N-acetylglucosaminylphosphatidylinositol deacetylase
Amino acid sequence: MRWKERKDRKMDFYNQEADIHVPDGLGAEEALARTTVMSIAAHQDDCEIMAYHAIANCYESDSEWYTAVVLTDGGGSPRSGGYANYTNHEIHIKRSQEQRVAADIGKYGAMVQLAYSSADVRADKRDIIEGELASLLLAARPHTMFIHNTADRHETHLGACLRALGALRKLPKEARPKRVYGMEVWRSLDWLSAKERLVFDTSRYPELAKKVIQAFDSQCTPKKRFDLAALGRRLGNATFQEPREIDESDSCNLGMDLTPLVEDDTLDIREFTLEYVKHFYQDVDGLLRQLGGGNK
């Protein structure tokens, strides 16, 4: 992948409207090379919703740098309030700018937007996207990844998850991150068994947590308050973690460990995910049997 010598730091991406934004002005190649933590998500604001733990951990660090990658152009998002009459192109421009503002607020190491359509991500440009992501990953070499989880109910989120996993599996084993986490957005992960549910503390810098989500003004309209929903879910996650213990934190995101899928290319993603579902079934069945909830 080549970097063009242009003031806007555009890279030689597949899509003409794709770009890389570096808040502190470092060159694109250098900015990616310093990456230690990366998230890959479907839409503008998904990284801020699902990977705030990473944003906060890198925020004031001298050694940890966060790079966010967004796959879609945001043109198909729901619109209400002052944005109700925006065209797909207008909302794409707006959301892309909001994403760059969020990166500035959060002091990201780099912000990459690839500007694909949702259909491209779900299936139409599968190989192209995975190849482009693999090039980015080789340039960045993060030790930790945050992506969508393999049980997300939003088709484009699931597509983004599969594209990320496909890209990771294209890398040489020595270039793959040490940890890969699948995070909740369009389906809570509180159904995971206690031993499999990963809890990420998101209580650091509470004002920053608000600001990086509220940067997406077009997604914080009266008919779709993603800002309140994301922050409220984190409080709910923290409060409802342990029924008989005092909360250790007042804010957390939940995730699942997808590292085995990157360590072993032979693992079937569908079967791997359904094992989590089977464990949920077993948990519910066991409690009902224990407390006399069945006739058998």
User: Anything to note?
Assistant: Strands lie at 19-21, 37-41, 66-72, 110-116, 144-148, 179-183, 198-201, 220-221, 224-225, 252-257. The first helix runs from residue 28 to 33.
